[in-house]
Amino acid sequence: MMDKVISSAAEAVADVPHGASLAVGGFGLVGVPEVLINALLAQGASDLEVVSNNCGTAGFGLGVLLDAHRIRRTISSYVGENKEFARQYLSGELEVELTPQGTLAERMRAGGAGIPAFFTPAGVGTQVADGGLPLRYDGNGGVAVASKPKETREFDGVTYVLERGIVTDYALVHAWKGDRHGNLVYRRSARNFNLPAATAGRITIAQVEELVEPGVLDPDEVHTPGIFVQRVVHVGKVNVGIEKRTVRGGER
Q: 12 forms bridges with which residues in the sheet?
């Protein structure tokens, strides 16, 4: 089917099963597919494995799934803005694979490009490569599951570590514009992790602020070609919140 538009977010995520893996776009509060995430919360799928730069904030984005204890495991690079995330991780309720940010983006991009693994210098000489990172705590301050050492290799006198590409069952992304064929355009910083996430999912679901007819988008402007996208949901204008508000005091 060339027309990939689904009438509602609820319908678009209706077949996501328990235990599914999800690549999710967004960075902080920007470019987060919150409508799809909220629909997934209402749908009830649990025991999820999520691949995303961060795991949302309290009451927003992936944070709503985390608060409802729907996420079993996450692969992330930044988790410092969610206290509930820290609580679940340290109490042994959540398994976490911490990954350098650039490596995470490349793992998703590689998976979408059919590349099973690649070598990178990021993490060499640390627990990322040597193993021992706590994946899951036991709830008493001890480590229940730790990461294993990864293969390293030297190229031209420099040591690199082998990282696996990531392919997930589903991907949830947010785009500024999309057409009925699934071609997507992201706006400014909302491009972030949406681009690699969209290619990493076997079934990619995109929420778009503006739905246009095929032929309207300039091919040179398309960031994600429709071949990577299976479902499109029109959600209208999305307002982005302020993650950290800084107010300067009056001049003295």
A: none
